[in-house]
Amino acid sequence: MQYGLLAKRWCNVELPLRVLKSQSGYYIGTHSDEDGPMSRESEEYFPTQQAAQVALEEGSWTQKPEP
Hints:
Blueprint: H1 5-11, E1 18-22, E2 25-32, E3 36-40, H2 49-58
Antiparallel strand pairs: 1-2, 2-3
């Protein structure tokens, strides 16, 4: 399982990467059950949930260097 680098660095929490949705599209990020979305880890927004999931599984996405 992969964990969010920005969530760890900026929020000091270790959360698994997952596909999330915003008004801009789907992205790879982290989410806390208590606090909601914590970080957007991917530079990219994806047009579909499936495209984002494939990118996550294949590692074909770009890690944001900072929030």
